[in-house]
Amino acid sequence: MSTRGRFIFFVVFVLFLCFVLTTLSHAQFYQPFQQELDLALTKARWRVGPFRLYPTIQFRDIGYDNNIYRMRENDEPIADFRATISPEIKAYLLYRDWMIFTFTENPEYVFFAKETRERSFNNEFNADLKVLLFRRFVLSGGYGYLNARRRATSEFDVRADMKARTSTFNFFYESASRLSFGFTGQVRDYKFEDIFAPGEEIYVSRQLDREETSGVLEIYYRIHSQTLFFLSGGFSEYVFDYPESKWRDSYSYQVYSGLRFPLLGRMRGTIALGYKQLNPRAEYKKKFSGIVGNTFIDYRVGRFALRFGYNKDVHFSYWTNNAYFIENRYTPGLSFYLNQFIRLDYNFFYGKSRYPEAEVIRLPDEGYVEFFRTDKHYSHTAGFVVRLVRNTGIGLTVNYWRRDSTDFRQNRSRWFVGGFITYEFY
């Protein structure tokens, strides 16, 4: 066997071992081999030995938050100054035109001036090996690790430490024409920190620690340049760690279709709509079936940039007796370029979370009431960006957020004013 043949055999063996021994969350979009190779060659311009590097750094949320724990007004909300610095480096190792190794490291520091318990060092890294075999078959495997203090879903008023480990396996056939199809398997393990903060004392780990396993069949058709039509369908299983949360164990079927266009003229983004059925294994719990979506479009015309996002999915609940809640999100936005140096921004967010099963809560007068919880979220963000050099700019933003709920205990509001740096002044 030749040196190249032995190397290919070794890579295939390692990837197969990863697939079998690691545990198989939702698959990420597959990126064709040539498309990823072109990205590495054009985007990563720095060279250090055999590696191509693409470093970035983000400064965001630098400002004043009047309610960092999202407390009710009559509970005397706590305000603080905060800031986030997030450097990232993406490294590519290419071997001729048939192997791509990608490594991404993204440490992050979140600073609070007074509330030291909220200060955190977050970190996320991902490694992925992709091999092109016989010019048509693409075999890849990846591992990701996330350790971050954040609000995992809209139910979280207080940020909590979350750890996620992800293992992914892909096997695809890329035809000489425009068609690609294959299989993606993934397993993701979630671990959460319990919350002990003003207004919160919840054992999140016992409610949400779980393992998610999925397998997805995917078809991609290249319409034009990097624009892809896709169709995917798969199965996911959700197994919770603690015995008291086993009633949340579930499985789901889902199918998605849409368009992905990283760049098509003045438009970029993804249109994805589909159908999902989530089935709790506890027979007395309600099932979900219906339309789901994950869409974001950015379109530039003249001096205007128009944005629209839509997301609908189900999320596991830790706060109620419901296994899950259904959430719709709409995010329209508009930017106006006064000239080549100043941009005005406005974004609106509306979300609605609906819980399928009734709750019983105790009222202040010692009585009890049964109701179906529904939350409505509103957010207005306005600001401007001043261009510094090329596509880099510095911005100022003001944000107001409010949640109205049929559960009066969940009504909240907060506002934030601060600055950020963007690399997308285009």
Oligomeric state of the chains in view: single chain
The fold-level CATH name is Porin
Poorly predicted sequence stretches spanning 5 or more consecutive residues: 6-27
Mean of all residue-level pLDDT scores = 90
Task: Examine the secondary-structure arrangement and name the CATH architecture.
Answer: Beta Barrel
Gyration radius, to the nearest Å?
A: 23 Å
Give the total of domains.
1
Query: How many E-type strands?
Result: 24
Question: What sequence of helices (H) and strands (E) makes up the elements?
Answer: HHEEEEEEEEEEHEEEEEEEEEEEEEE
**CATH top level?**
Mainly Beta
Whole-Å distance between the termini? 51 Å
Main sheet record: 20 strands, antiparallel
The percentage of residues in β strands lies in over 45%
Specify the helix fraction band: under 10%
Structural class: mainly beta
What descriptive keywords fit this protein?
24 strands; Porin; 426 residues; 63% strand; 3 helices; two-stranded antiparallel sheet; mainly beta; single chain
List the helices and strands and how they pair.
Layout: H1 3-21, H2 33-43, E1 46-48, E2 51-65, E3 80-95, E4 99-112, E5 120-133, E6 137-150, E7 160-174, E8 179-192, E9 195-197, E10 200-202, H3 204-208, E11 210-224, E12 227-240, E13 250-264, E14 267-280, E15 288-301, E16 304-316, E17 324-330, E18 333-337, E19 342-354, E20 359-362, E21 368-371, E22 374-389, E23 392-405, E24 412-422
Antiparallel strand pairs: 1-2, 2-3, 2-24, 3-4, 4-5, 5-6, 6-7, 7-8, 8-11, 9-10, 11-12, 12-13, 13-14, 14-15, 15-16, 16-17, 16-18, 17-19, 18-19, 19-22, 20-21, 22-23, 23-24
